């Protein structure tokens, strides 16, 4: 015994602080970070700030047993999207998901943030262009803002590519119907942010990146629009 009453062979346990938050105690070995992190950061930064490998046990567990709050959010999201797509034909539904996937993948230039107003304005302008074309008149409707105009310019070739092989008027009408749905949904979205509809699409739609060396045959098979 020492003069202060401690055993000479006592052990000091060092508390490891999470390197991500710098506050909470690190308890989980994270293969994505290469260090121990806290459970909160593991749950909230997974696949966003942390590059999780597919074989991470915590990632696998979260996918198999998502929290109840996440399940309820997913149910609300899917229900809201189904409501937006009500009464669409099969081809229109496929076209809707193609446009929605393009929106999720879209990266605004100059580090700008895509908001619902931009989506609504871009979809409205494109819908007007397709509606005019269906009547046999070529006229390019312009979006009211530069951000919406850039988004419309990015979406149009994606839709035109999907419409190859479909009679012009039929495709233009379908595209206009889908874009009007997107326009209305983005305009009427209710949320705490200006990205309520954009965030909804991001939670529901998880696009897989296409391989850069994909063959023409593979691209043809992956087309969403079926004539």
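Q: What amino acid sequence fits the structure above?
A:
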């Amino acid at each position: 015994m020492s003069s202060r009453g401690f055993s000479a062979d006592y052990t000091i346990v060092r508390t490891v602080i999470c390197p991500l938050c710098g506050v909470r105690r690190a308890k989980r070995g994270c293969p994505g970070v290469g260090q121990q992190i806290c459970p909160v950061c593991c749950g909230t930064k997974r696949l966003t700030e942390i590059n999780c490998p597919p074989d991470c046990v915590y990632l696998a567990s979260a996918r198999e047993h998502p929290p109840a709050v996440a399940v309820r959010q997913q149910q609300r999201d899917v229900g809201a999207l189904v409501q937006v797509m009500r009464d669409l034909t099969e081809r229109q539904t496929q076209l809707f998901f193609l446009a929605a996937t393009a929106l999720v993948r879209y990266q605004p230039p100059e580090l700008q943030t895509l908001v619902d107003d931009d989506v609504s304005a871009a979809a409205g302008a494109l819908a007007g262009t397709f509606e005019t074309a269906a009547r046999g008149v070529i006229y390019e409707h312009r979006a009211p803002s530069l951000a919406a105009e850039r988004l419309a310019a990015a979406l149009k070739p994606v839709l035109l590519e999907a419409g190859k092989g479909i009679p012009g008027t039929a495709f233009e009408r379908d595209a206009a119907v889908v874009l009007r749905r997107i326009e209305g949904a983005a305009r009427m979205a209710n949320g705490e942010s200006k990205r309520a509809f954009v965030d909804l699409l991001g939670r529901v739609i998880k696009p897989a990146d296409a391989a850069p060396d994909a063959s023409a045959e593979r691209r043809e098979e992956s087309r969403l629009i079926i004539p």
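Q: And what stands out in the fold?
A: Strands lie at 28-30, 35-37.
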